[in-house]
Amino acid sequence: MTRSHLWFEQARLTEGWAHKVRLTIDGGRISAITTGTMPESTDERHAIGLAGMPNLHSHAFQRVIAGLTERRGPDTDSFWSWRDQMYRLQGRIGPDELQAIAALAYMEMLEAGFTRVGEFHYLHHDQNGHAFADPAQMSAMICAAADQTGMGLTLLPVFYAHSGFGGQVPTTGQARFIHDISGFARLLEGARRHAAHLPDAVIGIAPHSLRAVTGDELTALIPLAEGAPIHIHIAEQIREVDDCVAHSGQRPVEWLLNHVTVDAQWCLVHATHMTEDETLRLARSKAVAGLCPITEANLGDGIFSAADYLSHGGRFGIGSDSNVQISMAEELRMLEYPQRLHHRARNVLAAAGGSTGERLFSGALTGGSQALGVSAGIAVGHSADIVSLNSHHPSLVAKGGADVIDSLIFATSTGAIDCVWRQGRKWVSGGRHAARDIITGDYARLMKRLLS
């Protein structure tokens, strides 16, 4: 068994900040923590240590379209016009392309301080919509990208069957996503097989949305999760809410809470448009709201009722979703700033007298870990998924405790992340991933082919 030691001047443990912290790591997990101690000669020494952040919602393949959808069409642009462009571009992505794109996204996530991703994966079939000989071929490429980069993986194969509420026939642009229940069960079996070699992979399921899955199909899908996480897109757009009301007489979150036992196993992604009653009920359910502030802003989704939700004890995590920009600090900053604009106040999401950064970081760490089926934070028995910060960064110099987190989120842009360990292995050093040159080279060649 491989043993190593890390020592930090200060580190944010699960119980709070501590000084002169020595971590013992055995087989990728933290086996001992000592505080108030000096380093030994063989210890690797750093200034500031944090737990790696979970990224609970990613569509890795969409990284390839970042920057390609920012031109206004003849009519008002929206999520739906963006989706049409995404459908056209995804038709060029095969298995090898998917691995190269996902590897770039996961590398960038690690460099940003994310150490586990929830991959909401729905690009299943070939470019003609036909199943591969191995129905989980594309899932295998996601696993390969996680292995190549060191990213912790919670793979969430997506069940997608319809183009709208009431079981509407899927469109041609959705052909690569579509399954029936039996086909999805085979996909899930294959995904579990491909992920078996990854040291701590989790396989959940993702009914795409209530517009893509009927009530009967949702009932059939839930047992397939076998107790693992269940993620679903919900109430992201006003049109989706209106269509759900027209079909069922209920709003999406309302319908789900009325028809399914939503509990800590669930992650409701976006949940942007909720009534006060839906907000209260979701908070009390112990499910996680999966918030993706950068993507939600990029797509013009709306503003999540975060202040009300947190006031009721709601759980949340953050995700990079479309991967138009990958930044842990920016996701947290973008969660708070629209609240300030909406409420015309400062430090909206902080507890009374408390740090906004600590509230955001702690909530996203705990909720994101729950949503991805793993334990949260730096503690004995947990995976050694750790981030060190550059204490020489101008915004971090001489800072300690909550001031570190506040400054990381609200006063830095680049250069704050120094090293990142995943299961005790250092993948990022000096802010740079160990395989950056290879991964970016592969991606550059891919983009030249795709855009030629």
UniProtKB/TrEMBL annotation:
Residues 50-425 form the Amidohydrolase-related domain. Residues 9-47 form the Formimidoylglutamate deiminase N-terminal domain. Keywords: Hydrolase, Metal-binding, Zinc. Its cofactor is Zn(2+). The keyword Hydrolase applies. Its EC number is 3.5.3.13. It is an enzyme of class 3 (hydrolase). The keyword Coiled coil does not apply. InterPro entries: Amidohydro-rel, HutF, HutF-like_N, Metal-dep_hydrolase_composite, Metal_Hydrolase, Metallo-dep_hydrolases. GO terms for molecular function: formimidoylglutamate deiminase activity. This is Formimidoylglutamate deiminase.
